[in-house]
User: What shape does this take?
Amino acid sequence: MANIKISKKLFEKEIGKLDQEMQQKIALFGTTLEGFDDEEIELEIFPNRPDLLSYQGFKRSFLAFLGKKKGLKKYNINKPEKSYLVKIEKSVQEVRPYTVCAIVKKIKFNKEKIKEIIDIQEKLHNTIGRKRKKLAIGIYPLEKITLPITFKALEPDKIKFQPLESPREMSGLEILQRHPTGREYSHLLAGKSKFPIFIDSKNQILSLPPIINSEMTGRITEKTREIFIECSGFNLEILKQCLNIIITTLADMGGKVYQIKVKHPKGVEITPDLEPQKNKISLKNTNKLLGLKLTEKQLKENLEKMGHNYLGQGEVESPAWRTDLLHEVDLIEDVAIAYGYENFIPEIPKISTIGEENPKETTKKKISDILTGLKILEVSNYHLTTKKDLFKKMGIQEKQAQGFIEVEESKTEYNIIRSNLSHYLLKNFSENVDSEYPQHIFEIGRVAFFENSGEIKEQDNLAIAITPGNFTELKQILEYLAKMLDKEIKIKESTEIPAHLIDGRTGDILINNKVIGTIGEVHPKILKNWRIKMPVAILEINLEEIFK
Assistant: This one.
């Protein structure tokens, strides 16, 4: 989430007096009022509404919510002039393949407007842009640039310009190594043989995205009247939406927006495009989901209060700058906000139930409290694991392994649902070999595997591991746990020794003569696989019998 600060004087002049009723409406709109004084109002904006990250964007939407300017706001977009062209070369395909651009003219900047533009730029970087990883935004004074512009990639030593806030010219590599902003975002270009740049027709470098602009061509001042804007990144649709947010903010400041031809290897695209999004909404689904009895007229009114146009027959035109509209449910949420959550009448369900904690969860909490009382540290590991950790490091040949569940089309090496907790506790030890000893840990967690019938079985397990430790020490912990749970647990010599344990130092754990797990000392070969320096004792049990 991000916060924005608004001039209280400007808010009360253009929106309304900040009285108790207005404060409540701000909250009901979905923007938390963090605080205010005589000078400023601070609002918290949720991540799903980046279009509200500027005063202009907030004012546009909030005035519609208040019923003062309902419906979809229209903007005039001027067609590109002859030289309004950006060429994308193939060289950027591996580093930052897309860009969308615009020009805004006749804008009168002052300190407040410059600050607002810089703020929304950085907030979009940190939210939609995931700290510039997905997209980067550049804003430049047009009078210092000669169109057309080229977006290409060069070797770092061939890139030389004076970055913002630097007293001298630097190479691409020097910027990443020596410039404060370059060092902060250097990881975004790490390992790349070429860096992307925007360069004009006079070979002036505008910027090194996603790092920094040029001091000569990339600084906006109060004298600036015309600007060039670009958004570069990896997802073309996200870039378009981000550009729409910025240019509508500038248009609301009085700017005149012009399109630019973006020529890429596969064709030509003209940006920006403020053509409304076409969406569908069902009155029946809306009433069912919200528990209301709205008429189509009321549906229209509520959609217009959230900046949409309702065309009838379930057809909706939505703003091109709204990035959060992915499904009909998002439109229904807007209807709920416009209707007013304070107007919903709470109903007691016509069922008789008494809420209580799940007995299994009560038992797991008790086990956790007992073990932490023994100064054993609770850990929590991933439910997905790797074949290497589950099989190879545990001394099991994958061909002989049975019952494991593999995830299809996994994007990482974590493609197996864990069938035991023991291997993860050993992994925890292996990642903390240089930490202070002794190390005592436990985990209560879900495991899953195929049964002989082919059905998937899920169960809750408990695993405890101690290092340095032996069978006797761990047996004492288990016996104490059983006593505190009022359970009679027995240990007998194992007939089948798990691959990771030592023969003769391993036992089966039983309740009511039923085997629920194993306890033993880890084999030296397994310790070597995990690079663990100390002896380890480990147990793992199925908690289902404990729950009974």
